Amino acid sequence: MEIKEVHSFDIYTEPEFIEVQNTLQEQIVLKNSFNKDNINLVAGVDLAYWEEGNKQYGTCCIVVIDYNTKEVVEKVNSVGEIKVPYIPGFLAFRELPLVIEASKKLVVEPDIFIFDGNGYLHFNHMGIATHASFFLNKPTIGVAKSYLKINGVDFNTPENEEGSYTDIIINGEVYGRTLRTRKDVKPIFVSCGNNVDLETSIEIVLNLVNNESRVPIPTRLADLETHRMRTVYKDGKLVK
C-alpha cells in the first residue's frame, strides 16, 4: 500500500507537535469521500508496548477483514523502538511511525481504517485516527474504549439498548458520540477520523460488532494480534 509522506517525525517538542496539528486540522473533511454501499475491506489498527533494558518498544498490528463476510483477509505488523514519550494529546507522534511501517506491508488496499483511539474527539481534533488519515490517504474512524475528557466536559451515558448513543458536545460542537454497541455492555466512544461523516462512522462500527466484544471486529482482532506479536518479539529477542 502506498503511503503519503505528509511530514517528518524528526520532531520532539510540544510546540512542534501543535504546529503540525494546526496545519493538518485545516484539511479535515467530515464528509464521506466514498460510497458506503461499496465498502469491501476494513482494517483495524492497534499497538502494544514493552520494555527491554532502558528502552521501550512497540508493535503495530493491522488486521483487514471483509466488510460483508467478516472474514480475515490479511494481517501485517511492524516493530521498533518507541522514541517519543507519552504526552496526552500527541499520541500520533509516538505511534504513527509504526503504523506507517505496518501499512506499507499491506498487499490489499482497505477502503477504510478503524483505529483503537480517538479521531476528531481530541482537544485539537487531531487524534491518531485523524492524523493517520493524511498518511494513509484513506477514510478513518476512531473508536476508543475510554473517554478523553476535553475542557472538563463529561459524556452522557446512552440508554441500555443496542445502537443507542449520545452526542459529545463541547463548546457547541459535536466531537463524537458515546455509543452502546450491545445491551448490558459499557459504551465506546466513536469519532470521525477524516473523510467520513459521523452517521456513517456509527453505521460502520455497528455493522462490525458481534457478540464477542463491544468493539468492532477489526480493532478487536488487531488488539489480540498485538498481544501475540509482543510475546513473539519479546521471546524471540528480535529487537535490541
What can be said about this structure in brief?
With 240 residues, the chain is an alpha+beta fold. It is built from 5 helices and 8 strands; from the N terminus they run αβββαβαββββαα.
Architecture overview:
Keywords: Endonuclease, Hydrolase, Nuclease. This is Endonuclease V. By secondary structure, the chain is an alpha+beta fold. The chain has a single domain (31-145, 152-236), classed as archaeoglobus fulgidus dsm 4304 fold (2-Layer Sandwich). 27% of the residues lie in helices and 27% in strands. It is built from 5 helices and 8 strands; from the N terminus they run H-E-E-E-H-E-H-E-E-E-E-H-H. It has helices at residues 14-25, 91-103, 128-136, 198-207, 217-236, and strands at 41-52, 55-66, 72-81, 112-116, 140-144, 165-170, 173-179, 188-194. An 8-stranded mixed beta sheet has the order 3-2-1-4-5-8-7-6, with helices on both faces. A hairpin with a 2-residue loop joins strand 6 and strand 7. It is globular and about 45 Å long. The model has no long low-confidence stretch (mean pLDDT 95).
Task: Name some characteristics of this structure.
single chain; about 25% helix; about 240 residues; alpha+beta; globular; archaeoglobus fulgidus dsm 4304 fold; 5 helices; 8-stranded mixed β-sheet
Q: What Rg do the Cα atoms give?
A: 17 Å
Which percent range fits the helix content? 25-40%
The CATH level-2 architecture is identified as 2-Layer Sandwich
- Domains counted in the coordinates: how many? 1
Structural class: alpha+beta
**Helix count, DSSP H or I runs of 4 or more residues:** 5
Order of helices and strands: HEEEHEHEEEEHH
Distance N terminus to C terminus? 28 Å
Q: In CATH's first tier, which class applies?
A: Alpha Beta
Beta-strand content bin: 25-35%
Give a quick account of the main beta sheet: strands, pairing sense, barrel closure.
8 strands, mixed
CATH homology group: archaeoglobus fulgidus dsm 4304 superfamily
Would you identify the regions where 5 or more consecutive residues have pLDDT less than 50? none
CATH topology assignment = archaeoglobus fulgidus dsm 4304 fold
- Shape descriptor: globular
Q: Averaging pLDDT over every residue, what do you get?
A: 95
Strand order of the largest sheet: 3-2-1-4-5-8-7-6
Query: How many β-strand runs?
Result: 8
Keywords: Endonuclease, Hydrolase, Nuclease
Organism: Inconstantimicrobium mannanitabidum
Protein name: Endonuclease V
